[in-house]
Amino acid sequence: MGLPGSGGELGPQIRVNGSWAEGMEGTVAEVREGARQGAAEIHSRDGSGGGNEGPEFRSQGRVLLMTVCAAGIGGTFQFGYNLSIINAPTLHIQEFTNQTWQARSGQPLPGHLVLLVWSLIVSLYPLGGLLGALLAGPLAVMLGRKQSLLANNVFVVVAAILFAFSRRAGSFEMVMLGRLLVGVNAGVSMNIQPMYLGESAPKELRGAVAMTSAIFTALGIVMGQVVGLRELLGGPQAWPLLLASCLVPGLLQLASLPLLPESPRYLLIDRGDTEACLAALQRLRGTSDLALELAELEEERAACQGLQPRRPWELFRDGTLRRQVYAYASSVFLEAGVPQEKIQYAIIGTGCCELLMASVSCVVIERVGRRMLLMGGYCLMTFWGSIFTVALCLQNSFPWMPYLAMSCIFAFILSFGIGPAGVTGILATELFDQTARPAAYMVCGALMWTMLFLVGLGFPFLMEGLSHFLYVPFLGVCVCGAIYTGFFLPETKGKTFLEISEELRKLNLPRRSQGPRWRGPDVIQSTEL
């Protein structure tokens, strides 16, 4: 497709499916009018009314589905997989640590030090995730969304080598370093994958496509739990291979993702490459009805130009602006009174619950909306967590209390999966403009991984200190999340990014919203990494 002007700069005209959209460097109104004229010309010539049927539409669906799968299998799937596989070899790694130390010093490690080393192995994963979250922003800007996901697999390859040879080398430090590296991989992918998918999907499917990140997370958790069964790779001799099996999803992504397009928004707004943006849009959408979407991209690009840059920490100054249970699942179920030999199957059930609800949430999110799923999920988590606490306190009084406690764990995870598990990953994509989005994901990722690190390091001691009341701190977080969602978050379903920014401004700054009509660029926050 030929384009007037240079490839990196927008000329006065842009060719869209054989029609010319005039005045792309003009005002938003001119951009919209040019897009409408281009679309009308296409419709009058084709007589197709948009062409959402036939081979073109099927090809569009295939490319978008392949993009989702390729990004997910080496992205949030890795996060869930590496989060859950560490549970199965808990005793084996602790024995390996004790034996290694005894071989070096001639004396076994005391029990509390073995527990400390194990807590470090678990908590180094979220610490690596924190580093990866801080790295994700600059990577997303310098390399782009797709290239960042591909480069991210370097951490997985190195970690898999360390895991595979740790037992032969007699080094539990290699396991610790490997956990740190897979954490960095997870931190990068948890930020960039929803950014990449949210920017690549049409606004009508943006919520459902972004929710696939939660589906792949839950799928990774379930696969890690299944592969970690004693009958497969969860035995005392096979645990290095279990940890090193994270290499397989990485290789699958390296083989598939290079064949798929980059984020159109990144290509146009960040790189200014109109020709590459149009090519990516045509692969993702087909060759029909690109004029209106291109006008929306131009509108967002115009809104992001000429603004003072902001750094990540400055986002806090602007007025518009649990999964650790899987690592310690055995201890939680044991505390709830589940027999030891049944625990591994109960753990698989928790992963299946989250996978089921993430899939359901992906289907209903564009009908119900983000706010309803978030508030409903947090409220249900508070309810079931409270019942779980009561059941733990009374488990010695009634013989059926352990079953109630186990049911509450499943209900808690079902409630988490229906809303907070996936919707929270979409919000940073929808609430921030193109230039502020990487910094926003850095802030969100840093907060999430810091909390996971603190919980991972302190959960064994928290369980020992609070006993039956170990879920009370998490219930407080759920209550705060429900209140904040109800009062401060706008509904983003089916809206453009600029419409969401306007509603967010009106919701959080009502007095300023009574002035002249908002025009878009005034409140868009760009950032400097």
Radius of gyration based on Cα positions: 25 Å
- Range of strand content: under 5%
If you average the pLDDT, what whole number results? 74
The total of helices stands at 22
Structural class: mainly alpha
pLDDT < 50 runs, ≥5 residues: 1-29, 38-54, 313-327, 513-529
Give an overview of the whole structure.
Helix 4 crosses helix 5, helix 8 crosses helix 20 and helix 9 runs antiparallel to helix 16. The longest helix is centred in the first third of the chain and has 32 residues. It is globular, with a radius of gyration of 25 Å. The N terminus and C terminus are likely disordered. Strands 1-2 form a two-stranded antiparallel ribbon. A hairpin with a 2-residue loop joins strand 1 and strand 2. It has 529 residues and is mainly alpha-helical. The protein contains 22 helices and two strands.
